[in-house]
Amino acid sequence: MGDTKKVDDFLSKLDHPMKAEIVAVRDIIAKVSPDIEEDIKWGGPSFFYKEDMASLNPRVKNYVPVIFHKGSLLSDETGLLEAGPKGRAYVKFHSMAEVEAGRETLEKLVNDWIKIMDQ
């Protein structure tokens, strides 16, 4: 079960140069579907739909990394999604402008994850 209050508390106490961008990315992901659960896992906000979907890593200070744990299942023709090790894939936001520019792609990736999990 997710714990949105735990994520709210974590973010309220977070001292981070890109806190506004982290909050914006969290809002984008969480608002895609009411069935997405969130919690604090692996040191940051994490999102779950039937299994672990993605996490934000606040230890990185110069951009906001969104780590899709099974990102190799997702495809993205925009190039925003970068392949990583062990089947992971990353989306990296370096500014609020990038968060806004990548909003639709991020929403699509989350929707694609939901469709894959529902198959």
Q: Kindly report how far apart the N and C termini lie.
A: 21 Å
**Which fold name corresponds to the CATH topology?**
Aspartate Aminotransferase, domain 1
User: If you compute it from the alpha carbons, what radius of gyration comes out, rounded to the nearest whole angstrom?
Assistant: 13 Å
The low-confidence runs, each spanning 5 or more residues with pLDDT under 50, are none
Instruction: Enumerate how many helices there are, as a single number.
Output: 3
The biggest sheet, with number of strands, parallel, antiparallel or mixed sense and barrel status, is:
6 strands, antiparallel
CATH class: Alpha Beta
Strand content: 15-25%
Shape verdict: globular
> Which percent bin holds the helix content?
25-40%
What is the topology, as strand order, of the major beta sheet?
1-2-3-4-6-5
- Rounded average pLDDT: 95
Number of strands: 6
* CATH arch. level architecture: Alpha-Beta Complex
Supply the number of structural domains: 1
Supply the helix-strand structural class. Answer: alpha+beta
How are helices and strands ordered from N to C? HHEEEEEEH
